[in-house]
Amino acid sequence: MRTLLSYRDARLLLAGQTLSAFGDWAMLIVLAVWMKTLTGSSALAGLTFFVFAAGSLLAPLGGLLADRMRRRPLMIVSDCLLGAFVLVLLLVHDRSDAWLIYAVAFVYGALGTVFFPARAALLKIMLPEELLADANGALTATREGLRIIAPLAGAGLYTVLGGSAVAVLDSATFAASAFFLSRMRVAEEKPAPPEHHFVREVTAGLRHVWETLPLRQIVGGVAVALLVVGFAETLIFYVIAALGKSPSFFGVFATIQGVGSIAGGVTAAAVLRRVGDVRLVGLGLALFAFADLCLIVPSLGIVLVAGPIAGIGVSWAIVGFSTALQMRTPLVIQGRVSAAADLTLSVAQATSIATGALLSTFVDYRILFGVMAAVVLATAGYLLTRREPIPVPATMEA
């Protein structure tokens, strides 16, 4: 980690992304709580995350854009656009304005299909390959770890001053991210011009994922898991209700999950070097499945234990997934490969969120959590039995 932080641009990127992630967590949690408060419906609150995932369906275009433009300026523009659009939430006053919450969630997802593929490519440009896992671990630890304070801060600000105040805070963090990006000195060559027909260009990332066995294993396995993982976006509100807590307790649960996420992000690179990227993702999914089983028990203590376990699992899965895409992909198609993988996962996640919201109206949430755990554990077992190590130098610094 010390080696990573010796890079000035890495420090600037991490600082900007930390501030932006704080705003993201505060805002995304509040969007769901706000919708629940306006409508009184857990299903409609859960659908906030479905709309967010639906915005990610634009990933093929976002990935192509990330490969056809210089990444840092593109990321700055994305930050500025989303920072401005989130202020639309200042117009939300009652249930009739609730659709604006969905609009912001959709744009959040859509612009993410440009920003995050561009960031993945930028990391590959600015850092040596042996530091990519450390960078992904640091970014994951900070982003996921901010669950410790950001959701509580967002929920608290929402309770005291309302959703508009959270929107202003979120907008300011996007401005801060754009500022730190503008201070970076990374040199980017002009991206290569298109070489093929538009459709072939757009689908290049998907073809690469399919033709590269470890990527096919990871993306396929995680996609199957996400076909049920999205149930949790709605079911968590039933867990909270069973504990006798208000919807804002969602922020508390997200906070304790952040504790585990920090530990997961800090340790992920070291574990990856031992077991490889494919099996690291499998280990992460296995921990997440165990946390799902814990949520079946109507006990506050057990639910609080499940949070950190899920956090570690999520961080390990994210770092393994992100590093595999970077290490096993040429820079020229890095954005499209990231976008293709994200699209596959987003379709699965959006499907499961919608399905979970529907099923939760007539199936006991504990049964659905049991189904989630069984499917995720099966995919974890599949990935853990693969034997493809990550191709990294043996001298990689811990």
Could you describe the 3D structure shown?
- The chain is 78% helix and 0% strand.
- With 398 residues, it is mainly α.
- The model is unreliable at 392-398 (pLDDT under 50).
Total DSSP E strands:
0
- The SSE string, one letter per element, is HHHHHHHHHHHHHHHHHH
Oligomer state equals single chain
Amount of helix: over 70%
Please tell me how large the radius of gyration is: 20 Å
How far is it from the N-terminal to the C-terminal residue, by CA?
7 Å
Uncertain runs are 392-398
SS-derived structural category:
mainly alpha
Backbone shape: globular
Compute the average pLDDT.
Answer: 84
Number of helices: 18
Q: Approximately what portion of the residues adopt beta-strand conformation? A: under 5%
Q: Major beta sheet, specifics?
A: none
Note the main attributes of this structure.
single chain; 398 residues; mainly alpha; 18 helices; 0% strand
